[in-house]
Amino acid sequence: MSKSQIICVHNMHQQTPIKQELVIRIRQLYKSFGENQVLRGIDLDVAREENVVVLGRSGSGKSVLIKIIAGLLKPDRGEIMVLGKDLQQLQPNELQELRLRLGFSFQNSALYDSMTVRENLEFPLIRNRRHLTKKQVDTEVEEVLGAVGLTQTINQMPAELSGGQRKRIGIARTLILRPQIMLYDEPTAGLDPTTSLEINNLIREVRKKYQTSAIVITHDLTCARNTGDRIAMLLDGQFVTQGSFEEVFKINDERIQSFYNYNFIQ
Question: Do 17 and 244 touch, CB atoms closer than 8 A?
Fold first, then answer.
């Protein structure tokens, strides 16, 4: 393992910094859309089994960032290493193979309305794990449904589920391919406070059960505080500070304080 793949990480649940392997390494990343400069030279590291929250206002470039990490958007320039691979040097087939090791939990859950929960979960397995038997597929479906606490919904249609249940099923469908990195895009958007807390708890449980690393994109401070080992505050296309929740919001920066006050946590 090269020195560039090691980072000294301060985990808010640890007393001292620990050295961990990097699964994501980003340096001087830029992305513009026409005259709109969205990302302006950002750096970010994510260690193995670390949950990093990227916090910022809507439209600040948070979702653009994880789409670049997932290979769905190309940056204008910069270095992006994911699981030891340089994204910009990969051939299309290599990029597709890497994507199977990433789990992208979309804001709208991205379930197929015409399929049952079982069929939604079977789809990525049948498409990408063609060697599996029907019994093995059934076992995998039941296992991830159990992991998100929704075994009873297996034969329901997405329209019959609540918003929180659809979020959970979306996460289950992502988990079924056993990704090493989870990318959560606004996981609590549109949910009531109680359901949001359930999703926050699930994000932590997923890390513990599946040993995943994660980037959690959110503007929800409760989500950030409950799910993140480390917070990276994105303002005006740049990370202005990183650290624990308490460290980020004790900084005397008017932009950070106004963000906190607007999203005030009881």
Answer: no
